[in-house]
Every structure is written in structure tokens, then in C-alpha cells.
Amino acid sequence: MGPLSPLFTDLYELTMVAGYYAQGSQDTPAVFEYFFRKLPQNTGFAVFAGLEDLLNDLEELRFEENEIEYLSDLGLFSRDFIERLRDFRFTGELWAPPEGTPVFPYEPIVRVHAPLAQAQLIETLLLCRLNYQTLIATKAARVKYAAEDDPVFEFGLRRAQGPDGGMSGTRAALIGGCDATSNTQAAKCFGIRPVGTQAHSWIMAHPSEIEAFRAYAEIFPHNVILLVDTYDTLASGVPNAIQVFKELRQKGWTGRPGIRIDSGDLAKLSKDAHRMFSEAGFEDPLIVASSELDEFLIADIKRQGAKANAWGVGTKLITGGTESALGGVYKLVAIREATRWVEKFKISDNPEKMTDPGIKTPIRFTDPNGMIAGDVLFQHTDESWKSGEVISHDRMILEQLRRFPSTFERRPLLQRVMSDGKRLLPSPSLPEIRDYAREQVARVPAETRRLINPQTYWVGLSDRLAEAKHSAIEDFWKKHEWN
Fold first, then answer.
1. Same domain, residue pair 328 and 476
2. Nearby residues of 318 by Cβ (< 8 Å), 6 or more positions away
3. What CATH number corresponds to the domain at position 30?
4. Do 122 and 43 sit in the same domain of this protein?
5. Phi then psi dihedrals of residue 327, to 5 deg
6. Domain, as residue range, for 226
7. Residues 201 and 332 in one domain
8. Residue 135: pLDDT above 50?
9. Is residue 365 part of a domain?
């Protein structure tokens, strides 16, 4: 999908930008940070996705003439502001981890350094790109975790939230770990091969089930996966499929027999189907299970000893299942006044909505076994993380500490990916992003990856940032105390 228009935004972004121009503050250097406060239920980590699409948007961000005319006709904006839009470009810089990186609540995931008006205008676009794809990539990673070494196929296009959601959702699902997709356009765009079998309508369009199977096998001999639950899975579908595979074998066919079961008790049916194939001399049939699957159902079916060895997951993947959105936010953390940065942070009656002050650099610590052990937020000018033991404070209860030994590897989570409005790194292929994601997710501790009641991963504050936060809160209340 192509870059999005600058009109792909909430109106108040445009009115705020117009206000900055009216005040003469549009070029004031500013820093915003993107993060989320809460993971989906029973989820211990998220998989970052959507960055490549965002970078494409920002590189091409400009107002077309018809868009300028539309804004002018609204009667909301001054003629001077409308004229300035003709030369509007994004000239800022972005810092972010590679797509596929595991990320956690309250840490900066994307940091934007840009003139105030530019940084403000991209808020909605950035949130839309990153929140949805990160949600779906995370769901896909959990589904793949439940499926273990079995292939997972993304089948969600027809249940996606419109064509845009179908394309970006498929992309995110592949990043998160799905092995293939039925979405042919996405497969073409992302350089992978699509997968698919047939629908019940193919079976019903023929005089009999076995004739439908024979016809499909004759036309597509290199992709014979037969849908066996149109009428009666065990009494009709599986026996007819076995008969067709026997006929193929007699003709010299050497492929792997495959079936798909799309309804019923998938654990029992897959075990019975596997037994029937084995008795017929087919020891290793591909048995694809589908039908409203998610990570919990796949894990449960496998616990029952199912013989399904591939999984087609659609609705509950492409929609996020029980979680309809990731609540990522984009907050101003610093603004330049004269020769210094002025830190900004949000005070709230709800402690969960209080932000950490200033520009922050998240540092990821890795233990000697290669497992990630925790992330610590440092002030962007603080380089004390580079060596020695690091003491970290819980961001809500500052007195609660965690120590990271000097033997732990440490590295910045963010890297600069855009400068002067231009990307700095070549775009990786989607298979490369997926491989990176799998390698990184494998470094998340098992107790944080588990499907139920995962252990909370540590994201804390450095000594200096904890002190700065404590001082900022005290100063705020001193200035606003009632007399």
C-alpha cells in the first residue's frame, strides 16, 4: 500500500499545527515519544511492527493541491497557513528498534525529533500505523508459540477490518511468525508464496465429494490438500481423500497427502484421520486444522494429543481476537527554549497515566545465557549504562530496585532510522524481518512468553531518571499547592 496523505489525521492535529504557525512556534525543536501503557490481556510482550510503512509515509508526506483546496474551503484556516502547506515536508529524525523487536509497556519505542508543527501533525498517522500492526504481530507471535514447530497459515483476509486492515494485518501476522498467508496480493507485495486449498463450495459444485477431490488433484497435483468436512469427516471425507491419494500414488505421484479439517472436534478428528491414513499406508499426512482458532485453542488441542500438524488461523488473528486495539500513545517529552531543553511530563490522578520526564534512552540488558533480562530508561545524556553494575528503580515505586551485574550485555533499544526526513537504512525484506523477530522473541524469558499469567518483564528507571522524576513531581505540587 502506498504512503498515506497528511489529511489522514484527526482535525485537531491540523488546528494545533495552524495554531503553532499563528504563534510563530512551528519551528521550535520538539521531541515526542511513542509508547504503550498496557499489553493485551495475558500477554507478556509485544512485537514491534509498522515502522517500514511509517517511514514510507514520512518520506512522501506532502499536501496535494486538491487537499490544500479542501482545507481552504473548510473556512477554518488562515490564508497564510494554507499557503505554507504547499511547502510542507517532514524534515525530522526518528529513533526506533528494528521491526520484530520485543517491546514492553512504558518504554519509548519510537522517538521523534522534529520541528513542533511537523512532530504534531504526524501523531495520528504514526499511532494508526504502529498500534494495529504491533497488535497483530504480537497475536501472531503467541499463535506461533502455541503451535510450536508446526506451520501457521494466516487465513484472515475475509474477516479483516477492511482492505487496509487486510494488507497491513497480513504483513504484521507474517512478521509475528506466521509461515504463510492465503492473501495473494499481500504475498505478491511481500515476496512470499501464498497458500490455499479449496472451499466447501468447490466440493458442493461437483456431483460428489470424491469427484471434487479427483478434479482438484488432477488440476493441482503439486498442491493436493483436500477439505474433508463438507459432509461427514470420518465417514466420507477422509475415506474419499485416502482413495484419491491411492489413485495418485498408482500414477507415480510422490507428494505428501494433505487434508484440512474446518469444523468439529479438531483433536479427535485429527487423531482418527491420522490413524486412517496410517492404516492405508500413508505415515505422514499433512493435517491442517482451522475453524476459529487462536493460541489458547491451539494449545488446548495439542494438549489433547491432536495429530494436526499445521494450523490455519483467521478471524481471531487478523482482528486481534479479544483485544481490539493496542493503546499506544504519543507524548511530548521535551521542547527547546533558547539554549536548553525543557522537559515535559504528564501528572495525572491515575498513576498509570503519569509519564516519565524528558528525552529517554531505553537500554536492554541481556544475561550470559542470551536471554533479555530487563530494560532501563536513562536520560538521553546519561551514559552511565555503558559499564559496571546498573541499579534500576521501579517506575511506580521508586524504592523498589533491581540490579543488573556488570557481566550483563547492554545495548540501546533505539537506533536512528531517519534523518532530515530520509530513511538511513535499507528496507529489509519481510522474510528477513520475520526471521529477526523469531530470533528476538526466542530471547524473551519463557515465563514472560507463556500464554496464561505471564511474568511481568522489568522496565525500570535509572538512578538519575528516578531522581529527576521524584524532583519534578515535588516541584509540580509545590507550585500548585492550595493556600
1. yes
2. 136, 154, 156, 157, 159, 160, 161, 165, 166, 169, 170, 173
3. 3.20.140.10
4. yes
5. -85, 50
6. 197-281
7. no
8. yes
9. yes
Is residue 432 included in any domain, yes or no? yes
Asked if the structure places residue 16 within a domain, the reply is yes
Distances (CA, A) of 176 to 113, 300, 417, 439: 28, 21, 21, 11
Say if residue 483's pLDDT is above 50: no
Q: In what order do the strands lie in the sheet with 258-261?
A: 180-181, 152-154, 310-313, 286-289, 258-261, 225-227
Residue 337 and residue 418 in one domain = yes
Burial of 343 (0-12, 13-18, 19+ CB in 10 A): middle
What does the pLDDT look like over 175-225, one tens digit per residue?
Answer: 999 999 999 999 999 999 999 999 999 999 999 999 999 999 999 999 999
Cell of 350: 491515575
Grid coordinates representing 152? 501457521
pTM > 0.85: yes or no = yes
Which parts of 240-322 are beta strand (E)?
Answer: 258-261, 286-289, 310-313
Nearest to 355 by CA among 26, 58, 19, 37: 37
408, 391 contact by CB (below 8 A)? no
What is the separation, in whole angstroms, between the first and last Cα of the chain? 58
Q: How many structural domains is the chain composed of?
A: 2
| Residue 337 sits in the same domain as residue 237 | no
d(CA 126, CA 132): 10
Query: Residue 305, Cβ neighbours under 10 Å: how many?
Result: 10
Q: Which of 101, 92, 96, 121 is nearest to 8 (CA)?
A: 121
Per-residue pLDDT, 1: 64
Residue 329 domain flag:
yes
Q: For residue 257, give the nearest of 239, 233, 232 by alpha carbon.
A: 239
Residue 237: which CATH number?
3.20.20.70
Q: Residue 474's pLDDT is what?
A: 82
> By CB neighbour count within 10 A (0-12 exposed, 13-18 middle, 19+ buried), where does 397 fall?
exposed
Closest CA to 241 of 221, 256, 226: 226
Residues 272 and 212 in one domain: yes
Place of cell 469427516: 233
> What angle is formed at CA 44 by the lines to CA 41 and CA 47, rounded to 5 degrees?
100
Tell which of 253, 281, 309 closes a domain.
281
| 2 pLDDT more than 90 | no
CB under 8 Å, gap of 24 or more: what pairs does 249-252 form?
none
Amino acid type, 74? L
What are the grid coordinates assigned to 408, written together?
550483563
pLDDT for res 352: 77
Residues 103 and 16 in one domain: yes
At 205, which amino acid appears?
A
Q: Are residues 125 and 208 in the same domain?
A: no
Contact 457, 44 (CB under 8 A): yes
Amino acid 463 reads D
Return the SS3 of 203: helix
Residue 359 · residue 443 · CB < 8 Å: no
Residue that finishes a domain, picked among 221, 254, 281? 281
